[in-house]
Amino acid sequence: MESNFGKDSDIMSISINEIKEYLIKNKVKPSFPRLKVFEYLVSHPSHPSADDIHKSLVVEMPTLSKTTIYNTLDLFLESNIVRSLTIEGNELRYDVDVSNHGHFKCEQCLTIYEFDMDPTFINPSSLEEFTISERNVCYKGICPKCQSTEENTSA
Ligand SMILES: [Zn+2]
Ligand SMILES: [Zn+2]
User: Fold this and answer.
1) Ligand 1 centre from 79 Cα, in Å?
2) 15-44: per-residue pLDDT in tens?
3) Which of 23, 33, 108, 147 counts the highest number of beta carbons within 10 A?
4) Distance 153 CA to ligand 1 centre (A)
5) CA–CA separation, 40 vs 96, rounded Å?
6) Is 22 exposed, middle or buried (0-12, 13-18, 19+ CB in 10 A)?
7) Nearest-10 crossing angle of helices 32-43, 66-78
8) Interval between CA 49 and ligand 1 midpoint (Å)
9) Handedness of CA 26, 27, 32, 33 (dihedral sign)
10) Which ligand is nearest to the CA of 111?
11) Which pLDDT value is given to residue 7?
């Protein structure tokens, strides 16, 4: 998919100009804060929260408010260039990878891993009359890295 900053594209090497073009293509006016927020999301595929984004960008842009961050993220969501997910509690996390994938959260190192899957495969007949706005598959457990350190310390 050409218009998707998915995991197939070389995410880390994306330039601010490419982000600008991408926003314009998706009918988002590329203001400076929008460019910076999108750049942050692209360079931090760890599913940051609005807080994470604000904390990091305010260093560079002291006048940047949290409201701007929220408004920008809402706009990205509406334009379908970002998706949101709730992994823990009610804190929304943001993902520039809008392709179908599930998440696995390691309860030890708190890393969020991604795996290929199509959540639209799960179509419970009991939800036939519901309008679905978010499909979210999230597993929790211990990642292989943490499992091996556990073995090492207990041995
Ligand atoms: Zn993801
Ligand atoms: Zn882990």
Assistant:
1) 17
2) 899 999 999 999 999 999 999 999 999 999
3) 23
4) 31
5) 10
6) buried
7) 70
8) 12
9) negative
10) 2
11) 46
Please tell me the distance between residue 148's alpha carbon and the centre of ligand 1 in angstroms. 24
Ligand 2 mean position, distance from CA 80 (Å): 30
Distance of CA 27 to the CA centre of its chain: 20
CA of 94 to the centre of ligand 2 (A): 20
- Ligand 2 centroid–CA 104 distance in Å is 10
Q: What is the mean pLDDT of residues 118-138?
A: 83
pLDDT, tens digit, 9 for 90 and up, residues 48-99: 999 999 999 999 999 999 999 999 999 999 999 999 888 777 788 999 988 8
pTM of the full structure:
0.78
